[in-house]
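ok trying again, last paste got cut off:
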Amino acid sequence: MTNFELYNPVNYVFGKGQISKLPELVPSNTKILLTYGGGSIFKNGIYDQVKTALQGYDVVEFGGIEPNPRFETLMKAVQIIKEQNIDFILAVGGGSVIDGTKFISAAVKYDGNPIEILQKRILTKDINAVVPFGIILTLPATGSEMNSGGVITINETQEKLAFGGSALFPKFSICDPTVIESLPKRQLQNGVVDAFTHVMEQYLTYSHDALLQDRIAESILQTLIEIGPSVVENPTDYKLASNFMWCATMALNGLIQKGVPSDWATHMIGHELTALYEIDHARTLAIIGPNLYRVMFDTKKDKLAQYGERVFGITTGSIEEKAEKAIEKTTEFFHTMGMLTRLSENTDQFEGTSDFIVKRFEERGWKALGEKQNITPEKVREIVEMSY
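nice, full thing came through this time. structure:
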């Protein structure tokens, strides 16, 4: 097990009716910027709950944060905070609203052009250089409610870039599983697959000595396989909803990543598909993930075989046979979750995609990806073309 530091200061407030605790969590005498997305919170009653809980607070609203939050949109919120001397942000939404709020928090006091936070991958570590924020989660998926990272799209350059830093943890996250009751099936499907792939990025690497991390990762995967199809059909079932929400948080709150290698190349390639074609983030992961495992089979086969044995119960065959069956089972699960796992099933404009992504990675200097730094631009090309 490699050396690590585990720091996670988020006050995670879980369960039914917890939005009513907002007055205990938000600092008193605070001017708040309320951030949200397309307006679903007005239809499902969450907005009314929030406003009731915040009676007496000075609240300014900023809606319209996109499903893939745009740098250009978020900079408008940065300007509002500066002009109106707002000192706390409350994000009400899923991963996109939360990621957007993290960027807003980092950008307000940034000394320079905030686009550098994305393009130069500048870590935000100074707690005094951010605007504090809290979260009310409305869609389990990204785990952004209990980590310090995010992903933002720059419209002008068609880039979807990650950012983060230890100063960008939420002060609190209110996570009420009943919020999923009104979500469309597609968003629930996406949430399960997103969480599942987050675990895979940290788990599906190579054999190592961190036994507990593997077991925790496998338990999250098993739980998502068990409840995923059912929670999509029965989102009012509190047992299913609560386990789904907790799995999504645990998948990316830092715990299973400590002391182990991690990959993240599936996400890096998938982000390009979203930036190019507006394909849902989770669906890009379902397109790329299995083919990345196939192209990188030689270095991942031992862990694939372990995954097949422990998660899917594949007990017969050689290591190679178990590994291949595990990839097949993963694709089957994605299909069960409503994913179309070929790029051509998601867009008609896929020709030339591999050339574009390889060129962009080379321009950024991303020439050695993955847990072994052995996913070269040519491997990226092979993965993308296999995904057509």
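cool. The first helix runs from residue 22 to 25. The chain has a mean pLDDT of 97.
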